[in-house]
Design goal:
Order of helices and strands: EHEHEEHEHEEHEHEHE
Shape: globular
Structural class: alpha/beta
Strand content: 15-25%
Bound molecules: fructose -6-phosphate
Radius of gyration: 17 Å
Largest sheet: 7 strands, parallel
Length: 239
Amino acid sequence: MIRFKVKSKKEMGELAATYYVRQLEKKKDSLFAFATGSTPIPLYDELVRLYNEGKVDFSEVRTVNLDEYVGLDVKNENSYRSFMDKNLFDRVNIKKDNTVLPDGMAEDVDKACALYSAKLAELGTRDIQLLGIGNNGHIGFNEPSDGLSARTFAVTLTESTIAANSRFFASQDEVPKKAMTMGMAEIFDAKLILLLVSGKAKHDVLDAAINGPVTTQNPASLLQLHPNVVVIDATENDE
Ligand code: F6R
């Protein structure tokens, strides 16, 4: 595991973007797994900037995403599909058909999870798996618990995650109680895992994940077992 400490979210985004630029120079049709939330926004802004300068081309890029809420229509501004469209896909020359997220509106959620797992297997190993970390150590929506899932599954979100994510909704009641998330084996099926972390509030959970014991009570700690993880750590201050 390599850990870069940076001074600001902007620096975090710029450094993270260099991995994508390098990867796309090697392989135009790279397969990326993206994440949502506040943390990756500086990376997406930087990728858009580089795209506008003609330094990066998404025309053949294929993407999957870590997770999606259950029960939010794709048109809902809080769905992760909307998030990805707004923050990245609509701003670059990616083909929407090449972007895949779990189907949060499926009638049969378990079947939709199995279909998503099958899609991930069909697409193969991700070139870069992007991750953020929850205040409780979750990655994707793999919440701390006695056991973790290997494959995509429907998860009941913890109170702390619902509270943390309520900042995007009109009220806490509107936050979906369930989500679909890639499982741990699927997150691990990546040549490179890029973990972005910003804000002082995440410092301790990140430290425990990197230096503490490997435990399902801090799902990010399992990343110690992956051979190629890069952490870009902007937790030194809030900017
Ligand atoms: C998002 C995701 C989550 C977030 C985490 C941190 O797709 O899978 O694990 O990365 O909740 O969220 P922020 O970045 O909003 O603090």
